[in-house]
Amino acid sequence: MEKVAMFVFNNFTNDSRVLKEAKTLIDHSYQVDLYAVLDDKTLPEEIVEGIHVKRMLRDPWHMRFLKKFREAKKPKQQSQATTTSPTPAKPTNKKIAALKRKYTLLRKKMAAKKLVMGKKTKAKVYEFMKINLLKFHRPFIFWDYYVKCTKANEQQQYAIYHAHDLNTLPVAYWLAKKHNGKLIYDAHEFYVERNTKIKSRTWKFILTRIESYLIRKCHAVISVNESLAEEYTRRYGVKKPYVIMNAPSQNMASSTNGEEELRSHLPISPSQKVLLYCGSITFNRGLEKLIESLVYTKNYYLVMMGYGTEEYKNSLLEIAEEQGVKDRFSFFGPVAPHEVTSYAATADLGVAPIENACLSYYYCSPNKVFEYINAKIPVITSNFPEMERVVQEYEIGCTFNPEDAQDIAKAAETVLENEALRTKMAHNTAAASKAYNWENEADKLIKIYQDVRDQHEH
């Protein structure tokens, strides 16, 4: 039984792609150890569906240093013995006694001032160090993970080291080189062109140089779709990566019951048609325009099913109220991965908006599209290459400009206001599901591993 080490920089509780890949390998007689990140919601070590999960405590040196500095003992006040003069003998001269009292008072004031200045200085030093150290927070937490994974592998050897995304590739490369193993790079997205709030040209340059060097050291590179695979080849001049799409299992196809009926959980009238957005509720997903699109429709109800911060969700509720559509909009969930398609099947239309905020988004093929297909409902998506490819190839919906709320509404009406067309598109999802499912992708993954094993034997 060949041993595989997988590396992922999250707590491995909701990463469906990594879970599916690891389970596929186990089903084909591989032993999989997965190195993830420990947090307050997870265990340091456990077995998850046959996968030996080992989580590394996220405790980088700069956070430990700042904590110790902040919690250091406060300067002790000088004792009375050191801040006052000995009780003088009965003065023989009133002037001398007065001078001694002034001297004693002055010493007390100086000691108090020194204590206050010490606290202020320490606070300023702490803030200075905090501001400057946190500029390098991301590199430091990655380095902390790399060091701990390396220590955990001192007595371990694996045949194959599988890095999920660029943030784990350095440690997988180092360990593969150290233990003479094979290296697989699984790029879930174009990491150097991903969706981030803070744009740093310097950090992007460094990441690009790292990826450019390490990608050439891999025995296999995997991407999530054809467009991203071609972009890797164009940018780095490497052999075109293999493609493993993030499609759900056919076994997760919809089978609804009363408990998984969206209408039974939300204030949706029988006459309203349900638009479903499924996935992360976060910025640059086109959700603001999606809410605004309800203004241009009469009887549609929008449900957003997934996880989002309360702050961001509240901002969306404010938009809904400003646009006068708050009564036709709700959040729901999140629900367990195996329940997604069952809930989705009770919607009338699946929506996959995403903004052209970065190259990784422009070339994305989001899992939600395949979940809608598995749920057997028509789909409308942003008019970007990979999503458009799927929608048009199987005629399961239509596309829209994610920056134009009216165009989103028009796409929804094109499908929902023509019952014959909607029925045809829903029917076509069956053929799409046969093409885009994890069972097909699993076969590709095993073939990749066989190719890598053959390289190893040579």
Automatic annotation (TrEMBL):
It holds the Pfam family Glyco_transf_4. InterPro entries: Glyco_trans_1, Glyco_trans_4-like_N, Glycosyltransferase_grp1. Residues 71-93 are annotated as: Disordered. Gene3D superfamilies: Glycogen Phosphorylase B. Residues 124-245 form the Glycosyltransferase subfamily 4-like N-terminal domain. Keywords: Transferase. GO terms for molecular function: hexosyltransferase activity. Residues 260-429 form the Glycosyl transferase family domain. This is Glycosyltransferase involved in cell wall bisynthesis. It comes from Tindallia magadiensis. The lineage of its organism: Bacteria, Bacillati, Bacillota, Clostridia, Peptostreptococcales.
